[in-house]
Amino acid sequence: ADPIKASIDPATQQMIARAQELGIDTVFDRAEAMKPCAIGATGICCKNCSMGPCRLPLPKGGIVGEDTRKGLCGATPNTIAARNFIRMIAGGASAHSDHGRSVAEVFMSAARKETDAYQIKDTQKLLAVAEALDVATTVEVDGETKARDMDEIALETAEKALNEWGKSEGELLYLKRAPKPRYELWKKMGVLPRNIDREIVEIMHRTHMGVDQDYRNLIKQGTRAALADGWGGSMLATDLQDIVFGTPSPIQSEANLGIMKEDHVNIIVHGHEPVLSEIVVAVAQSPEMLDYAKKKGAKGIQLGGICCTANEILQRHGIPTAATFLQQELAIITGACDAMVVDIQCIFQNLANVAKCFHTKLITTHPIAKMEQDNVIHIEFDEHHALDDAKKIVKMAIDNFENRKTEVMIPRHKAAQVAGFGVESIEYHLGGSFRGTFYTLNDNIINGRIRGVAGVVGCNNARTRHNEGHITVVKELIKNDVLVLTTGCNAIACAMEGLLTPEAAGVYCGPGLTEVCETVGIPPVLHLGSCVDNSRILLAATEVVKAGGLGNDLSDLPVAGSAPEWMSEKAISIGHYFVASGVYTVFGVGLPVEGAPVFQNYIFNEFEKLYGGMWDLEIDPIKHAHKMIAHIDKKRKALGI
Ligand code: BF8
């Protein structure tokens, strides 16, 4: 691959060239060598039974007259694309929600006081979550209302939370956190999720050969499962992590491969669940381990994160971000990565092959995510002996410092960032002291200084130039006075580009947004965390509705969503719960619905009439941003502002 064509980031370009010099292939090379299947990429390959795969390509020149394409069973392109689409939602929703379940289990052990490693850190958040889960926070004693014992609240909250995955009747309790008209709409549409696991299982059933054959009914189940992700599994993951690890608040740090240090032991944590990385952070910063590292000839221990683990430990501890999704192999190719510790999701299997060329210890830690290569070490992490596991891992990295064999080459590039935003800190910075929560933000939207708010999120994708879509879309939005909320790998890309600093306002923003950012001292792009933390965007938007003056429902707001470089099934689930929550959502790269025009039209256009939000696809990043701005303007006009 040509390094310049592969990425806009100089550190990445430098490291791709380095990999080539060393004869190591990376995702960028593999993307050139293997082209995607055009039929699969457009959503019209059905491999749900072994009479197929049935491939139904669009005829050259498009459909003329009736669309007669069908699979062996008669499945139409719409049925096939809808089935594939909601199976992606099932994959994504299960990834977020199973992560949430692990956190709920850790929260339960903390509530039961079964572990030394985890405690209840944020009792404020615990009380808020308890309330949302219908857990009493007060008791009546002799006719007097008193605060209920915190341990009791924690225990009951943990039980109620865990119940959300598999309760036998009722509906998800968090749905009522949405604005009332939104909840009522979901009810009317028949899409209120019953429990998290059930909606995912039902997708697998309905998409089995010969079950649901109506694309409208299929996507309805997709909507239910996606809502169970956004307003269920993901939101619970975020909330319970905040309770156990602390709610983030603005914090300074740095981003890009240049955060690694040649004279330090470099430990890279990569994946998604903060359950392990939180403890690794604590252990790596302990005097005992620092002394040990110094004894072994290192100046200290440098921690760095990749993917959403990076976002989690950045938000809560200011640990610098080493890399986006597509740079993961490059972190090892620096020759300075003494250990890479991975848990779940977004981890390349090829890391093991790259690690073989270096001294790097690649450590898997999760029982559901192992690798077949024999140079990979598996240290299974368990919340009941979390500290011992973390010590073992950190010590292994330190012991490995002296084994570096290839010449170290760490790119010098890194950028400063301010991260750690959330509903609470937006309220703090953009709230009003008298008029309640999000008043100042609403006021600035109404007076036009802020034209609207965009959630720009999601992955990198080797099918498009690394970070180019992310950065172009975000810069175009802030130039047009749209405040950006970011998560996931978009947040990392923005950090690497220097967009997560208050100073970026004066450089890249339109006059209105510059004024607001400079007055309150915030960056024009607010980092809200990992991909499960997209739930923070839902709740922030709900606070905006509550603060008044901008309509009664999420679909009334001048907001839009975007994932310019998406690749994962999780992104589809997120996109769909944004859409079903009333948000116009644009994806880049391509969507696996293009081969089924009727289904595509249904979720791109008809959906707006049903949910107020709809999907769109735009590969050109400037046009992509302007479609979002046009939607924001349409909503402003409808509000009369
Ligand atoms: O959950 S943005 S590449 S890291 S999937 Fe993966 Fe995509 Fe990055 Fe986090 Ni989200």
TrEMBL record:
GO terms for molecular function: 4 iron, 4 sulfur cluster binding; anaerobic carbon-monoxide dehydrogenase activity; hydroxylamine reductase activity; nickel cation binding; peroxidase activity. Its cofactor is [4Fe-4S] cluster. [4Fe-4S] cluster 2 binds at C46, C49, C54, C73. Its EC number is 1.2.7.4. GO terms for biological process: generation of precursor metabolites and energy; response to hydrogen peroxide. InterPro entries: CO_DH_a-bundle, CODH, HCP/CODH, Prismane-like_a/b-sand, Prismane-like_sf. It comes from the Bacteria. Keywords: 4Fe-4S, Iron, Iron-sulfur, Metal-binding, Nickel, Oxidoreductase. It is an enzyme of class 1 (oxidoreductase). Signal peptide: none annotated. [Ni-4Fe-4S] cluster binds at H272, C308, C346, C459, C489, C531. It catalyses: CO + 2 oxidized [2Fe-2S]-[ferredoxin] + H2O = 2 reduced [2Fe-2S]-[ferredoxin] + CO2 + 2 H(+). [4Fe-4S] cluster 1 binds at C37, C45. PANTHER family: CARBON MONOXIDE DEHYDROGENASE (PTHR30109:SF4), HYDROXYLAMINE REDUCTASE (PTHR30109). This is Carbon monoxide dehydrogenase. It comes from Desulfosudis oleivorans (strain DSM 6200 / JCM 39069 / Hxd3).
